[in-house]
């Protein structure tokens, strides 16, 4: 039998399959491949990045449907406790029943290379996985789709529910700007893509000459993510207005050579993927970083169908450039939530017209001028991201739904739910603790999510705990203030309890 191509395989996707990870859907097998198939030099900047494969465990929400079977691949074996901690959150299904429909595989390879690359190097392992996936009733779900995932789909002859790699340009910095223009979504002034330092200096000079009031700008690698490919360039100290056009370009060239870009060897990356420069949005009486997340469901013959807005968030940013994703709160402010959702829907429909499928998210900057808030779109992410798994966690444990009229998430009782989440809760006191220690602390302190009270915390990235003192958590409440209070109380109690268990000794101290 002739092997089918990636595109031909995607035509087998069924409309109902897009709802499987939401806890609904028909009898179907799902292969979950949480591979971080992105630029490895930038992934190296993320502490404990190889443990981030655990974040997609919240996709096990699909096991709430008794006809769904799931196969979860990972680089190293997942601890049973880590898996059971997620399964025990699922309402309406016995943990033992869900566990029987879950099959775990690993490559026993802790190297920093993408999980999908490791799977492709192990044909015997792939064969065992393939034996579990029923022909015509299976699909692959990934964190991100690259050429590696395309090859995996073709090797297994199983369709992949995600955007084809040849469309990923729409998730780059330059592609995002082009789509914003097409949709009429406001976005900052900026340059076209360039590939060398001289051209970048020229583009920066031209941007300043068009906006001589500009005090700073931001340089972006075209394929950077989570802010790790962005760097601020301070223009005010250069006093560009006092120099001629050629002198300005020389000054900017020297300044760019010293640019504190988080990504190492960023000039080599620029030569390969390109970079651009944008106006740094400032001013206003308040500044925020909201985002909107959506999903493009498969339609007839696997082509893009219905577009659905899933959530809005306020992102918490930090790091050297102030643009690295650290966490989020849900939902975004009522001041601009509906406008955010409208922009997200328009962009989702434009992406669907291009052939995109599954998750997408759009980052914005919000500035307040008096009583008015102004939204400016920054970039599109054609993959799962930092806001994906907290929302999955909320949906997994509450069985609620997003109200498309106001963007609030309501439990089955009608109560609006909020959360504060992070992938980056770090404390020296947490180092040396094992996942079982965390579970004990959480149980003893009553920090876990209580479905009767609709409040409490859910944890992830437990694999980072012992080595890095790092943890992810989603803290839920019935208001933004309650979610924030749960977050602060959880943070404080974890540190105190960890210190008690260490007898006052601080690991690494």
Descriptive terms for the model:
509 residues, four-stranded parallel β-sheet, single chain, alpha+beta, eleven-stranded antiparallel β-sheet
Give me a quick take on this structure.
By secondary structure, this protein is α+β, with helices and mostly antiparallel strands.
Radius of gyration: 23 Å
Please report the distance between the alpha carbons of the first and last residues: 62 Å
Seen as an oligomer or otherwise, the chain set is: single chain
> Tally of extended strands?
18
Shape summary: globular
Continuous helix count: 16
What percentage of residues falls in helices of 4 or more residues?
25-40%
Poorly predicted runs of 5 or more residues:
20-24
Main sheet summary:
11 strands, antiparallel
* Mean pLDDT rating: 90
Query: How large a portion of the residues is in β-strands, by DSSP E?
Result: 15-25%
The structural class is: alpha+beta
Secondary-structure topology with pairs:
Layout: H1 6-10, E1 28-33, H2 40-43, E2 68-74, H3 80-87, H4 95-100, E3 102-106, H5 115-120, H6 123-132, E4 138-142, H7 147-156, H8 173-183, H9 197-210, E5 216-221, E6 230-234, H10 245-257, H11 266-273, E7 275-279, E8 286-288, E9 290-298, E10 304-318, E11 324-330, H12 337-354, E12 358-369, E13 372-381, H13 388-398, E14 401-402, E15 409-410, E16 416-426, H14 435-445, E17 456-460, H15 465-468, E18 470-477, H16 480-501
Parallel strand pairs: 1-2, 1-4, 2-3
Antiparallel strand pairs: 5-6, 5-7, 8-12, 9-10, 9-12, 10-11, 11-16, 12-13, 14-15, 15-16, 16-18, 17-18
């Amino acid at each position: 039998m002739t092997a089918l191509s990636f595109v031909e395989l995607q035509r087998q996707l069924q409309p109902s399959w897009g709802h499987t990870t939401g806890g609904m859907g028909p009898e179907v097998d799902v292969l979950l491949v949480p591979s971080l198939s992105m630029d490895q030099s930038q992934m190296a900047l993320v502490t404990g990045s190889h443990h981030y494969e655990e974040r997609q465990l919240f996709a096990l929400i699909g096991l709430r449907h008794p006809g769904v079977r799931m196969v979860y691949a990972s680089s190293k074996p997942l601890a049973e406790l880590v898996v059971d901690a997620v399964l025990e959150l699922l309402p309406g299904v016995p943990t033992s029943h869900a566990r029987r429909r879950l099959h775990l595989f690993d490559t026993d390879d802790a190297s920093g290379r993408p999980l999908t690359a490791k799977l492709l190097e192990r044909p015997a392992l792939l064969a065992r996985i393939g034996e579990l996936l029923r022909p015509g009733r299976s699909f692959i779900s990934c964190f991100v789709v690259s050429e590696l995932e395309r090859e995996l789909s073709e090797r297994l002859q199983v369709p992949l529910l995600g955007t084809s790699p040849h469309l990923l340009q729409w998730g780059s910095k330059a592609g995002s700007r082009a789509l914003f223009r097409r949709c009429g979504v406001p976005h900052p002034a900026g340059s076209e893509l360039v590939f060398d330092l001289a051209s970048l200096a020229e583009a920066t000079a031209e941007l300043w000459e068009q906006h001589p009031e500009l005090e700073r700008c931001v340089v972006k690698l075209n394929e950077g993510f989570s802010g790790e490919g962005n760097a601020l360039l301070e223009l005010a100290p250069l006093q560009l207005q006092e120099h001629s056009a050629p002198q300005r370009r020389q000054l900017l060239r020297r300044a760019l050579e010293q640019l504190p870009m988080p990504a190492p060897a960023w000039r080599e990356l620029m030569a390969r993927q390109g970079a651009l420069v944008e106006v740094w949005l400032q001013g206003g009486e308040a500044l925020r970083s909201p985002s909107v997340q959506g999903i493009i469901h498969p339609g007839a013959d696997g082509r893009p169908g219905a577009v659905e807005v899933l959530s809005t968030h306020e992102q918490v940013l930090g790091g050297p450039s102030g643009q690295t994703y650290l966490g989020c709160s849900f939902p975004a402010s009522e001041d601009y939530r509906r406008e955010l959702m409208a922009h997200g829907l328009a962009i989702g429909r434009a992406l669907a017209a291009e052939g995109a499928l599954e998750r997408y998210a759009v980052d914005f900057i919000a500035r307040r001028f008096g009583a008015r808030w102004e939204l400016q779109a920054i970039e599109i992410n054609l993959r799962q991201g930092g806001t994906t798994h907290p929302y999955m966690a909320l949906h997994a444990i509450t069985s609620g739904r997003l109200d498309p009229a106001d963007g609030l998430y309501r439990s089955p009782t009608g109560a609006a739910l909020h959360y504060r989440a992070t992938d980056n809760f770090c404390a020296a006191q947490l180092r040396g603790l094992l996942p079982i220690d965390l579970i004990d602390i959480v149980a003893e302190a009553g920090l876990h999510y209580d479905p009767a009270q609709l409040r409490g915390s859910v944890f992830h990235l437990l694999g980072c705990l012992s080595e890095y003192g790092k943890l992810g958590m989603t803290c839920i409440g019935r208001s933004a203030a309650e979610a924030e209070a749960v977050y602060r109380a959880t943070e404080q109690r974890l540190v105190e309890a960890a210190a008690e268990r260490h007898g006052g000794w601080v690991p690494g101290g």
